[in-house]
Structure formats: structure tokens, C-alpha cells
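Researcher: Please generate the 3D structure of the following complex. Treat every line as part of one assembly.
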Amino acid sequence: MAITLLVATVVVFLVLEILPGDPASFMLGMEAQEDTLSALRAQMGLDQPALVRYFKWVLGLLSGDLGISYTYDVPVSELIIERIFVSLPLAILAIVLSTVIAIPLGVIAASRHNKSSDLIIMGFSQLGIAIPNFWFAMLLTIVFAVMLRWLPAGGFAGWDAGFFPALTSLLLPTVSLALPQSAILARVTRSAVLEVIQEDYIRTARAKGVSRGSALWNHALRNAMIPVVTIMGLQFSFLLAGTIIIENVFYLPGIGRLIFQAISQRDLIVVKDLVILLSAAVIIINFIVDVLYAVIDPRLRGSGHA
Amino acid sequence: MSLLEIENLSVSLPTPKGMLELISNVSFSMEAGARLGIVGESGCGKSLTALAMMGLLPDKAAARGAIRLNGENLLELDEKMMRSIRGNRIAMIFQEPMSALNPVKTIGSQISEGLKIHLGLNKTDAENKTKKLLDSVGLPLNRFPLNLHPHQLSGGQRQRVLIAIAVACEPDILIADEPTTALDVTVQEIILELINEITENSGMGLIMISHDLGVIAQTTEKVLVMYAGNAVESGSTEDVFQHMAHPYTHGLFAAMPKSGTRNYEARQRLYSIPGQVPEAHARPKGCNFAGRCFKATAECAVEEPVLKPLNGKHKVSCFHPLTEGNPQ
Amino acid sequence: MPNRFQEVFQEGLQHRNFIIGGTITSAFFLIALMSYVWTPHSIEDINIAVKFAKPSGDFWLGTDHFGRDIFSMLVVGARNSVIVAFVAIGIGAGLGVPLGLVAAAQRGWTDELIMRVNDFTFAFPALISAIMITAILGPGAVNSIIAIGIFNIPVFARIARGSALGIWEREFILAAKSAGKGQVRISLEHILPNILSILIVQATIQFALGILAEAGLSYLGLGTQPPAPSWGKMLKEAQTLIHMAPQLAIYPGLAIAMTVLGLNLFGDGLRDILDPKLRRSR
Amino acid sequence: MMMKKLIKVFLVSAGIIFLSSSAMAAKTSLTMGVVLEPPHLDPTAGAAAAIDEIVYANVFEGLTQIDQNGAVQPALAESWTISDDKLTYTFNLHKGVKFHDGTDMDADDVVFSLNRAMAEGSVNAQKGLFKPIASVNKTGPHTVVVTLNQVTGGFLFSMGWGDAVIVAEESAEKNKSNPVGTGPFKFSKWAKGSHIELVRNDNYWGDAAKLTKATFKIIPDPAAAVSAMMAGDVDAFANFPAPESMEQFKSDPRFAVVIGNTEGETILSTNNTKAPFDNVKVRQAMAYALDRQAIIDGAMFGYGTPIGSHFAPHHPAYVDLTGRYEHNLAMARQLLREAGFPNGFKAVIKLPPPSYARRGGEIIASQLKKVGIELEIVPVEWAQWLKQVFKATDYDLTIVSHTEPMDIGIYARDKYYFNYKSPKFQALMKKLDQTVGTDERYAILAEAQKMLSDEAVNGFLFQLAKHGVWNKDVKGLWENSPVQANNLTKVYWTN
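Model: Done. Output below.
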């Protein structure tokens, strides 16, 4: 884990070293003069050799100091925390919504294997996988913001504007993220359940007199959760950073947009920090997924997994 | 009226090549507390017969004939009624103890589940009964608490748990489908004894399904020999074993090892009956066994033999039985 | 092999997914090919006078804010998607499969190293890496191909390694080994043909993903550049005009969804046919 | 269905509450949309117009200030005198002016501010403004004398720039995140990526602002901006990011749509030293091949004034040269033939992010293709544009809007990205510097405009319009933008 992160720091640092464009000249614009630029570079510590900057950065990370944003001139941690309060709720809402939709649908489809409800659910799931989420977002905008004018087409009201206004501005983004994801999740759930209901212990349960439904929900589902949780973990990691496009569609001030903006503005310190934090988040999510495996499956407990 | 009467049971399954009849016109009956064995090679329809009795045939399977429990035809019951019989009046132990227990649930909850469903026991009562059951199958509570998970148990121990699950509601009939096949040789004997003991003590009827004649001999009074979906010979275990009439039964015996290392070698030698069980979609006209039979004649390839009495209750479906039967 | 092909094709005719997916996919490829010879209008023909025209005999789906024919742009966009996705798969499979084969053949630390690097690439948020790649190399179709291609490498490496490991255990490999064949020959002559069907199925899936990825990058302005039309870029342009001409946002999205749907169905059908073992889980 | 009803009821009741509260008294708070988020809030340490759009005249003030007509007005300096040789300026400061943190604003702060901007390690983006200054001296608690080393006609104008605002020594370093100025509004909070809030400065030295609160909402996305306006989330956009939406606002009685002018000459910048653009005939051929009106219609949806040289049409010295190169493809082809490119040539056009550049670039590529000039379109981010195009002049063509007021002088610079390098033009600009009389100056400016047009230095496209849209009850917003600012001092609601 630590090694992965360490390699990540090296890779990110090197990649950003070759990124064309100078943060200082971006900040000072067209009329800036050379001495002004070098003064600003010195102020930002960009005049030091790469190795020094690398170690300063990594040591800073280790001590929890993410540095100062070049463009905003505030601590990067502050910036990230502000954005996390948009991205994290969005990611959580999206994963919850997609789970709530997908798992029942997947189980229903599996229990009605090859019957019409299965075919309909799987048809929708195919459609959901094929539709790019940003297009879906645009369709939602056309319907709910342009035609019906029920919901804002974009922007984030901010949590200090109140819980409901903030939630309203996250509603369409959540739906546009969740539905395509639930399409995938429903598929995975269905095939996992189909796999599990072939198992001997389902027959054992049925032989006890357990009903088909109860066998499905009480005996099969939990066993089928392993692949489902794996996919959910992947989806959640994707959601943390991969909301860039959706944040662009709805203009939400989230993590994805921050990193996108930081790359174009050459706020390299923000880019570096965010990439490392996101990699760390992915590692943490993998760890949580491992823990969940153990919660779900007692065979994996205490076996030195994770 | 017998406790269980199976009459002309046929079961068909859908395959890519259409519906195939895997069990054809099987009939037998058993009295309360009786002990019946069903023997045959794998794929001959033993397990499917058991599943038909449990009402657990695959979704698109079609069963004809009748399975009467106390005169009530189980094939005509709806799912809800069938559920009240399953695990309550007929219970079953499966072949693979390693996979027949739900890995994510405790053994306690798996045993008590049936108790709650059929006997309507509350949590405490169900727990107490579960403890007794565990004890009765040889898993004393001090070493085997209810919150154990299946992976913490050995194969034999798991089979004991499965037995406890099956007998929890004291069913009229216990079906044991190859209960020892997957177990170590040393454990097999003990498990069989446990099954014998429990069924005898409580007066349960036992249907023992096995390819292993030794197991059948050890546990049953009557036996039904199945081949390719047909009952080819039936009678008291003693009669059939001593005066085997069908060449197939003979083949099974010939393949049986003397004693001891029964399991593995038995299977190996069984293949010494020349040829293989014909697949369901390629069953020949006439006697299904004719292709492998050393006594087969032209007649066997044309006409299908039916099960008819050879001697008293000893029946065989063969034009050329090996024996005239045991004169009584 | 032609027999095998015939077999696959004949069996395919019995699969609903395969037929529907295959039809959509071939239509998509045909349209993409057609754009080389003919489009109703030139897509570089900017004619402000006819902007936002309604669908008509002349402009089948109407025109955009520059007065360009939307149908023609969709057709050329199809070609664009095909090229990007195809080359990206070429990169992914071309590098990933050999890596996977080497990992499976060598085992030991080579395997470990290749798989570690693989995992590492997976742990990086793909979209962010793609954005960084295009930030370094500059936006454009070629660079988006590289970005998408790079993320196809671990996918193919993983699947090639996984399936190859199984094949290495088989008896005929032992025979080949005892005949004195080296790892490279065995990998090429025995392993590769045996995992080909799995790779082909994966390729159709990656193709669909590639089209989605290209659309996403172009939507962010990092992919295909004007005047070459791209479905993602058309959506981006439509978005600013969404209050004025919402119809512009419909067609490119439909094109993406239909194509991806077709490819996915086709891939599913193909998997059913090539790998009956997996059929049960569907 | 039930859900729909519930949502409707909820929204309607929310609307009623909103309406009833606003009906009681005229609103005193304004939410203004801005397209770009400022990187920080210190106008003396960054070039971004987004900084000035929020703090100029609202939070920070300079010695002078530019009004909405582009004229110089007194600000912190209530008056000034200029010596006869035009080299010494004596500024008399307002008395009793306090910074938002309560400290006094006096001559020391002025000396500090100007010296800080001029200093060696200064990060002021417009250091050129201070170049003419030889020294800054305090001659009394409220008197400052600035001595110049050369006559500079526009010095008072320069002192009105956002880059020349007066800051306090104690707070200067923290102005980026917590700006402390002397203006009628105080900085209140900044939710990064979302909005910036200013509140009224009740201790303001001049006429107090009528608004109690001003919120700048950052909405870069045009589609989101339309929705925000439509939903009333935003009361005003001084310069709406999507000209394509103006028709929609015009037809909506809730809004006032005000098309003003800006100082933004939008040009097809051309690398004058790079072949084939070093050939004046090639540049002229391109000028003939361009159809300005089509570009304005296509890229700006009809908003914008065609220009024929690098000069703002609303300036009195403007000469209309748009007829110099009438759209004429035959003429363009002939000039290309004469220049030795009968079959045209290939070139690269690098386009920065704004939509005028991206859309304009596509149209120009299509127009030039008709005479055989094939442009490869390369979109670049601002960071790359600054580095590749502006500094390294590694480009053929680009499109950019030059938004500084009266910036024709850039063509006389030794090193500037057009690589124009015309001694004749440089001499002309030198003459302008030394000329004092208005008529003479205008004559020189007219000559300069013609020279640029004759030599077709760049493709002169159009003057960027300012697409103002706001709630019809909001009064006092600037119609034009002579400087990039949203001066809210006089803004009020009529109900």
C-alpha cells in the first residue's frame, strides 16, 4: 500500500514536470514582465531544483501539509475540503441510489430467469450501460430544467443555503450518475444470484421447506454480494474522481472539477495532491471492500486478508 | 395403504434438443418406518427420483404419474402445500456436505430455520431444540456452539449438521442421497451408523440412495435397482443381493470390492461393465442395457422389458434373468 | 477454421442478442465506411444562413448552429469513433496480450512485476490520467487514442494472463513442452489460439467502452478536434444551446447509445457462442 | 404521479414564501453572475480580469478611477496638480479615509503601494504602468508627489487601473484571500468554486452604497448561466457568456438586455515574421477572404461590431476601415497568386478556450479554405497559449480579444507576439507620445489605424460586445466596460 503510494508520488511528480505551461505566467497573464515572473516563481518555490521540490512535497504530505495552491493562494487542504463536501455527498448519494435500484432489480431478474420481467430488466440494463452518463444528464436537464423547470440545470446552492436547496442541486447529478451505474450493478447482481442459486446449500434450504423467495433473499443474496461489493467498490472509486464530466454538465464545484481546472490553470500542487489523495482513496476503498468481504463471508475472517 | 406410493413416475427435462424423459414409469412403495435403498450408476435417475419426491425438480421439468404420501398425490399439490411437507414430512440429506451448507450462516441458524418454519417455535425454543439436535448427531454443545460457521467444521461434522437439519422436524421419511460418498472412508461408517441409529430410534422411514451396494446392504431392507431412468430390479435387499436376476445388478456386484477400500475402487471397477450408460437422447429401442449386456439377444434390441415379478416380491425387468429367483 | 467460422455464424443466427447486436454493429461500420465516399453535405461547409434548420429533404436531421448538416456530421462522427476505438484496442491488445502471455509463461517475478504495474495503472483514476495525458500531449484524436489505449493495456494483459494460466496446465502443453518447444513457440502456437475467443469477446466490450471514452474526452474538449466532428464534441456544443435547440443534444447521444448497445449485445452473443461455459451465468 | 404533485406543491409554496418576502421592500442585495472565478482577490498581484470584476471600485480604490465612459475621475485623490513640464504630479488625498480593518489611509499607504508595485521583486502583472515613475514622495500626511522620468499622457488613466489600487502595508500580503481596501464594500466570504460575498462598508468615506450585500456567483457554463438567470438564482450578468441566449432573454419581460461595448478588439493574430505570413500580399489575401459578418453571426450570434483595424469603434479617434477589404474571394485568390501561392498553403491556427475563439476559428478555417488556405485547428488552454503563442511566438495564427483600452501601442513594441516590427509604426507611436493636442493626437491615431489596416498586420474581426442581462428592476449597472469591472457603488433595486 505504502509502496504503491510512493510510486504514485514519483509518477505524478515526473508527469507534472513535463506538463507544458508555467503556473507563474498563467497567473500574471499577457502583460507580465520577465522579472515579475521570476519573482513569482521564487515566491512559489518553483526556482528550486526538482529533487528538492519533490522531497519537500512528499515530506509535506507525510506531515499532513498539502502546500499552498498556486492560483488560489490558500492551503490546498482547505480547497480540497470545500470540494469534498460536494463530491463525497454526491458519490454517496449516487452509490446508495444505484444500489437501492440495482440490487432488487438484479434479484428479481435472477428469480424470474428468462421470463419477461427478466428480459425487460436486462433490456433496460443494456440500455443503461450503453447511454453515456453525460448524455443522460443532458436529457434530464432538458426535461426537468428546460421543459418543466422543476430543478436547477446546474450549479450548487451550497450547504449553507440550507439542506434542501443543496440537495436539490445534487438531485439530477445523482440520478445521472446512479442510473447508468445501477444498470451495471443490476447485471452483476443478477448473474451473481443466478450463480448462487445453483449452489447446493440453496437446495438444502429449499429442502427444509424454505420458500423460493426466502431462499433467494435470506440465503442466496448474501452469498451473491461478493462480486456485487467488488463492483460497488470500483464504482465508488470511479465516482470520487470520475464525476468530472457530470460535474461539468451540472457545473458543480467538486473534486473532479477542481482537478480539471487545476490542470488547465497549471496549479500543479493541487493536481499532485489530488491525484495522490485519490489514489489513497482508491486504496482505502479497496481496504473497505476487503473488510466488507469478511463481514459478508465468515470464511474470509481473520485470514490475514486485506 | 402404504406411507409412500410411487406410481408410474416419469420425469422429463428440457434440453437444447427438446424434452427428454430421464425417468420412465418408476413405481415403488414403502411402509412407515421402512428402509428402502435405491442403487445404480450415476446418471441413472436416482437423485432425480428423490428430488421429485421433495418437489424440488428444476423449474421446467415435467413429472407424470403419482407420488402419494398417505394417499395424497404430491405432484398435484401447490407450492405452498408442498413447502409444508418438505423438511417436515419428507426430509433429505445431500451428497456434498462441503457445499450443502450455507457458508455465510451459522450452523445454529441453519438448523433452527426448519424448526421455526414448520413447528412455529420461537427463538428460545428453537435454540434449545437445536442444541439437543446437535447433541443427538454427536456434536456436543461445549465444542460445537451454535454460532459456528460451516467452514470451521470438517466434512463429517458438516454431514452431521445436515443430518440434524434433516431430522429436525422428525419427518416421516428421510431421504439420504449418497450421504457418505464425499467423506473419508473412516468417517463413512460412523455417519451411516448415525443415520441408522437416528431413523431407527424415531421410527422414520429411510430412503438410502447410493451407487454403493455395501451402503445399501448395511442400511436397508428393500432395494430398487435403477438403470437409465428405469427400475430394473426390486425386492428385499436380501433377495436381490443373494439372487440377483438382472445382468446389470450382477455387473454392479461384480464390480464391488470385497471390503475396506470400498469407495474409490468400487467406482473404478464399475466401469468394467463394458460401455457406458446411454445418454438420454440416445437411448436405444428395446432394453436400455442391451448394448452392454452379456446376455443380450435380438429380442432385447426390439422390445422393451417391463418390471414383472420373478418370485414373490422380487421383480426384474429382463427377458433373460440370471436366476429363476429364490423359491420361498 | 472456415468450418468453425461457419459453425459460429450458424449458431449465431439462433441468438437474439447476436442478431440484433450484429445488425446494429454492421450498420454502424457500414455507415462509418460510407462516410469515406459520400455524405449528404460536406461537414466543413459552414453556412450561417441556414443555421438551426428543421429536418427536411435537404437536411435530414436539420442543421446545427453553423448551418452544418447534422446527419452528415453524425456519419463522419461514426467513422471517427470507429478509428479511435479501433486503434485504442490495437494498442491495448497489441501490448497487453504479449505482456499477459509473458507473465503467464514466465511466472515468478516477471509475472509479479507485470501484474503489479497493471494493478497500479488500475488504481489510478483513468479519466484523470487521460486528462493529464492530453494536457501534456495536447488535445486531439491521436492523443485521446493513446490515452484510451494505455488503459486498455492492463485489461488485455490481465485477461490474457488469466486465461493463459489455465491453458498452461493442460496436457497438450505438457506434450508440446516435452517435444522441446520453447515458451515463445508454445505461447504463440498453443496458448494464443486457445485464448483467442475470450480476447475477441473482450475486444468487443473494450470497443464499446472505447467509443464511450472517446465521447467523454471529446465532450470535455480533449478528444477529436474541429473541424472533424465527433459525437462527444457535438454534445458539448449542443449543451450550450440546450435552451435554444434541444434537438441538437438528442441525435449524437442516440448515436452513441445505439452503437454501444449494438456492440454490447454483439459481444454478449459472441460470448454465448464462443464460450458456452459462461452461458449459465447469463 | 403522487411524487410529481408533492414536488409541485413544495415548489409552489417555496415560491410564495419567496415572493411575499421580496414584495415587502425593495431588495438590497444583489447576486451577480461571473463567468470566471478569480484565482485570488489581489488586483495588484495578478492579471486575471476576474479579480477586477469583483474588487475594482467595490473593495479597492486607486488614486483615480475610470468611470463607465472611460473617463478619469478622482478617487482617493480628491484633486491633483500637474507641473508645467508634465513630469511632476501632486496628489491631494481625501482625509478621513479608513481601510476596512479600521486603519487610516494616508500618504504612507500611497507611497507604499506604488513602491511595492514598482519594486524589484514585485509580482504586479502590469508593471509597465509604473515604468514612467521616477519617484514617489510623501510631502504631507495627505499629499503625495509622483515624479516621472518621461512625459506620459495617460498617467492618470494608468493610476485608475486595478493594478494601481492603494493597499495598506499591514494587510497587503493577505489581500489574496482576505482583501482589505478602502471601497464601499467589504469582503465577507469566498466559497471556492461557488461564490464570493461582499457586504456594505458602513464607514465608507464617500457616498455609501445602496446595496447591503453583493454576491458574485461563479457560473462558467453558459447553459448553467441561462438556467440560473431563468430561475432567478442570479439577478444580473454584466457580460453574459453565451451570446446565443440573448434572444431568449430579450423576449422575456423580466429581463433588461443591454448590449454595450467593450475594449475587446477581437483579431486573427498573425505571426508577421513567419512565412508565408511575412508576405503582405498573403495577409491581404486573407483579409479579403474573411467574411466578418458571417463570423459575427456564427460565432457571436450577431453581437459585435466589425472592425477594420485595431481600434475601438466607440472611441472618438476611430476611423471606419471595414471597407478596406470587402469580402472578395476573387481578389483573395489573385493576391495569393501574386504572392506565389496559387494553390494556397497549409497553416496552423491555435485557439484559446473562449467560445469566440473556438467558434470563430472553425468559421475562419472554413472561409479560408475557399481560397485554398487549409488551417489545422489546434485548441490550446490559456497556459499553453501564453507559453507557446504569446511568449515563444511559436504559432502561425491565433484568435484572441485584446481587452486593454487604447492598446494600439502594442504594435510598436520591440517584442510582441505579432512580430510586426515596423520602424515606421514605431516612429508614429513615438510621435504620439510626444504629442499633446487632442486633434493632432487623433490625426496620428487615424494614421496608425490605416497603417495597420493597409499592411493587414492581423485579421481584424470585430469589437467584442458586452452582453448585459439583468433583472429589469436593477438599476445602475454599467452598460459598457471601459475597464473590466462591475462597479456596484450606484446599483439599486426599484422594487
